[in-house]
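User: What would this chain look like folded?
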Amino acid sequence: MKDLQFRRHRRLRGTAGIRKMVRETHLHPEDLIYPLFVVEGTNMKNEVPSMPGVFHWSLDLLDAEVDEVVALGIPAIIVFGVPDSKDDIGSSAFHDHGIVQKAIRQIKANHPDLTVIADTCLCQFTDHGHCGVIEGGKVLNDRTLNLLAKTAVSQVEAGADIIAPSNMMDGFVAAIRHGLDEAGFIDVPIMSYAVKFSSAFYGPFRDAAHSSPKFGDRKTYQMDPANRLEALREAESDMEEGADFLIVKPALSYLDVIREVKDFSGFPIVAYNVSGEYSMVKAASQNGWINEKEIVLEKLTSMKRAGADLILTYHAKDVVRWLQENE
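Assistant: Here's the prediction, encoded as structure tokens.
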């Protein structure tokens, strides 16, 4: 054996200290964005049945949740609204006193330094559950753009720091950028859901946001999960139209896409660790089949390794606590 020549990679794995020294990918609290679901009414802290640990919050109870997020050092939240009334164009999405607008004002009044991102879409607010105006059973792309721009402006007027449009209409970034600029908000960034697949992983979110389509599906505007090059075309369009961040959604089944979009664009990339990915882990953990902490930290690290700069995840609060324990 003395003449056998081979490399001893294990030398760099021998102790916890050495492993930490050579670790290539790091997960930090500042990498995380925490989603919040806000609802009308009072004394509402209702757990989403398909998402253990995720709640609907009424505004009178919201402050305590946001205080906890800030205390943990999570730098950003994204606000999703569940209105008490809906119509065919989702008018409560752009109403000055819509649930999202009210929540943003309240959050920024209490925590002006917290970065507040507004999800900009119509599906939670329309009575048909689609992300745009419907005519003849079809989603009308161009008529929807005006409403999205109007929604974005109303959210920024309420205090949103970043607009995150998630509708996947063609030209939505251009329309929102034009609307924001025209309203004087030229410095507000757009975090575009640039690459959003028509995925089976969204089921629990639709339960949380009450946003399931009443007919058909969203395959005419969300992407085919089989397509990789299309993701690059979508990202390129949003870059040209004025996006500042690019979201890839979902994350776990699309790590290859995250890497390609990062290498192609050079833009800050956000991985959306979606509801189905969250709920699968929670269900397996509750059955004692997996170690939740180790699984979550491993999968979020894989997203960072694939090229994500930020991760939008329902696990965010637990992740910060686990990172603190590891330190």
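The chain has eleven helices and twelve strands. If you want, I can go into more detail on any region.
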